[in-house]
Design brief:
mainly beta; 6-stranded antiparallel β-barrel; 10 helices
Length: 457
């Protein structure tokens, strides 16, 4: 999803974002104490006091790595230097820094430059690809560093003034201003569990990992992505909300090596206009529950198929991504309040969210050694594994890992990430069903959301 060009390695998901225009926004929990500037003097007020507070905690990041390559003509293996530039935010005085994962992914050397030009080496404490948030620890810090407060109260409103602070194009720290254009923006193509703050504050390559701050000088988001056809800001930028940023930071500071995302154990689809009419709703809102995981948190809370989930902890939910985000910002075993419409009545139930069942590790994968699928490394799906791979936790089947080059599985076209659904019309739920599959067998797979069937010759 990220630009691979070395000079624009921190290009904020530019190409992926330019392909999707059907994102959705949902209401948030809002405060009501906003005041419009009342006179010309107020309109001429400066952002300088906010910048003085926030800018010292925003840093520039330069990362270097080595990529293994092969000469296209001679086939000789070699190495190529790669690099990226981006931004980050100091969130603890001992030198804990938050940035985007795509700024430091696959990099071996990370150098952080503070606003006052001091430089530190940094190491990765935790990198969470799903949220695109990484936590770094500066090395050799002997004094308290300036920090930004992470404001995860979600009191922002559409129209609020915000500042974006970062290192666009590597030119050095830069401040741009704008407003919040939308809240809880989902279905952007950036993440299946993301719910983003949208802003028109100018964000460009190099702003990745920088701060989105409110007029109190608090961190309300980490700038992550833009929609753009040109590669530069078009006034549509996205930031990971502070609630998710804090969740990742808390996990890292607590000693975790990965963010454990809980789930509610329910799956649904957005309420369309036709659905709203059939359900007797005043407007299309909420998520109709279509599946409930047996003995999962949702079942124990009393949720069932046909319920319409409209909010979690008071924040409106209108699609699966919004639900995943709301639950994903909570720690395992936290209790959430789920608002549902059932038989025309609005109810609120308490649910204790829990880690997804199953093992997300791939160490126990099995190599198929006979039949036409020989050479494929396979593993039966479970909710934890499917979720860790960015898939549907409710998905069933056997997923393909590595495929040996030159093997029979490679020749028939299997690829890593394929989910084998059926063989000769029979559902595949166990790796043993893939042993000794013969020629002439019909195979159905799911490849990146597309269902493909064919006969193996």
């Amino acid at each position: 999803m990220k630009i691979q060009t070395v000079a624009l390695a921190a290009a904020l998901f530019l190409s992926a974002c330019s392909q999707s225009n059907d994102s959705q926004a949902q209401d948030a929990v809002f405060a009501e104490n906003r005041v419009v500037p009342g006179d010309a003097l107020a309109m001429k007020s400066s952002f300088a006091p906010v910048v003085r507070t926030a800018a010292p905690a925003v840093v520039n990041i330069s990362a270097r790595g080595v990529q293994q390559v092969r000469d296209p003509f001679w086939g000789i293996p070699g190495q190529r230097q790669t690099g990226s530039v981006g931004s980050g935010v100091i969130v603890r005085p001992d030198g804990v820094v938050v940035t985007n994962n795509h700024v430091i992914a696959n990099m071996q050397q990370i150098r952080v430059t503070l606003n006052d030009r001091r430089e530190f080496n940094a190491r990765v404490v935790l990198a969470d690809e799903r949220s695109d948030i990484a936590v770094l620890q500066l090395e050799g810090v002997n004094e308290r560093l300036p920090t930004l407060n992470i404001d995860d109260r979600e009191e922002q409103q559409i129209g609020d003034l915000v500042l974006a602070i970062g290192n666009p194009f590597g030119v050095g720290q830069t401040v741009t201003n704008g407003i919040i254009s939308a809240l809880n923006r989902t279905e952007t193509g950036i993440s299946d569990s993301g719910s983003f703050i949208q802003t028109d504050a100018a964000i460009n390559p190099g702003n990745s990992g920088g701060a989105l701050v409110d007029m109190d000088g608090d961190l309300i988001g980490i700038n992550t992505a833009i929609f753009s056809r040109s590669g530069s800001s078009s006034g549509v930028g996205f930031a990971v909300p502070a609630a998710m940023v804090k969740r990742v930071v808390d996990s890292a500071v607590g000693g975790a090596t990965a963010v454990v995302r809980p789930w509610l154990g329910v799956k649904g689809e957005s309420v369309s206009a036709d659905m709203a009419r059939s359900l007797g709703l005043e407007r299309p809102q909420g998520l109709v529950v279509t599946e409930v995981w047996p003995n999962g948190p949702g079942v124990r809370a009393g949720l069932r198929e046909g319920d319409v989930i409209t909010a979690v902890d008071g924040a409106e939910v209108n699609d699966q991504g919004g639900l995943n985000f709301r639950v994903g910002t909570r720690a395992p075993n936290d209790t959430v309040e789920v608002t549902v419409l059932r038989d025309g009545r609005r109810e609120t139930v308490s649910a204790r969210v829990q880690p997804l069942p199953g093992d997300a590790g791939t160490e126990n994968a099995t190599m198929v050694r006979s039949g036409v699928l020989s050479g494929a490394q396979v593993l039966a799906l479970n909710p934890a594994l499917a979720d860790s791979l960015g898939g549907d936790p409710f998905a069933s089947g056997v997923i393909v890992g590595r495929v040996q080059r030159g093997s029979y599985a490679h020749r028939v076209g299997l690829q890593g990430g394929d989910i084998i659904l059926t063989v000769n019309g029979r559902a595949v739920t166990d790796v043993q069903q893939l042993m000794d599959v013969g020629r002439g067998s019909e195979l159905t797979i799911n490849r990146r959301g597309q269902r493909i069937s064919g006969v193996i010759r």
